[in-house]
Specification:
This is PO22 protein. The strands form two sheets. A four-stranded mixed sheet has the order 1-4-5-6. A two-stranded antiparallel ribbon has the order 2-3. Helix content is 43%, strand content 16%. The mean pLDDT is 89. It has a single domain, classed as 3-Layer(aba) Sandwich (Trna Endonuclease, Chain: A, domain 1). It contains seven helices and six strands. It is globular. The chain has helices at 8-11, 33-38, 44-64, 110-121, 126-132, 160-167, 171-198; strands at residues 68-71, 75-76, 82-83, 87-91, 94-103, 142-151. By secondary structure, the chain is of the alpha+beta class.
């Protein structure tokens, strides 16, 4: 959380001429904590496992509240490019297209920016999502695109609570889920860093 894990980039600060800053595994220019948890191929499997675990928790909570859940449906846009939104929740004329991400908190706006980025990503798929969810067969109130970011260091994005509330979770349940997901993101960060540092090159 203090951003002092001894990555090569951290150890090279002030000593660029004598220290290597590139990733020990993939050769990226800078071995930073953000690179380790989000970009390095050596930790990709652990990152996917973390991502899927978060999606599964959201899916289970939505199903408990009576939502129909589509997980990673294959959809093609008008240019025939394939996309896989993480989750689509459908209930009573309402649909949420949710994309989950875990981001390193570079600054106070990192999660807000990630949420906006993810919300924009699938807006081009509105016609395909309407077909998938039979929106043309019922009177849909709205299809809403939602980015659901979590901080790798355990920061909770306040706007995430709006989705949990819209799904029908009680205030108490919202708090428990928020705490569980934030803790999972943080502890998986620790596991991923351990995997990165202990994997033999």
């Amino acid at each position: 959380r203090a951003n002092v894990y001894p990555t090569r980039e951290f150890l090279a600060r002030g000593r660029h001429d004598v220290c290597v800053r590139s990733c020990r595994h993939c050769g990226a220019d800078y071995e930073t904590a953000a690179h380790v948890i989000g970009n390095c191929p050596i930790t990709q499997d652990a990152s996917i496992k973390r991502h899927n675990s978060i999606c599964e928790t959201l899916s289970c909570e939505a199903r408990k509240e009576g939502w129909i859940v589509f997980q990673e449906p294959y959809l093609k846009d008008d240019q025939n490019e394939i996309f896989k939104p993480d989750l689509i929740f459908v209930k009573e004329g309402k649909a949420f297209v949710v994309d989950v991400t875990v981001r390193y908190e570079h600054n106070n706006s990192s999660l807000k920016e990630a949420a906006a980025e993810k919300a924009r990503k699938y807006q081009r798929l509105l016609p395909q999502i309407c077909d998938l969810t039979n929106a043309t067969a019922v009177e849909f109130v709205a299809v809403e695109f939602v980015g659901f970011p979590l901080g790798a260091q355990g920061k909770w994005h306040e706007k995430n609570a709006e989705l949990l509330q819209a799904l029908g979770l009680s205030k108490t349940r919202q708090g428990r889920i928020a705490q569980a997901l934030a803790s999972r993101a943080l502890f998986s960060f620790v596991d991923i860093v351990h995997t990165f540092s202990s994997t033999a090159r």
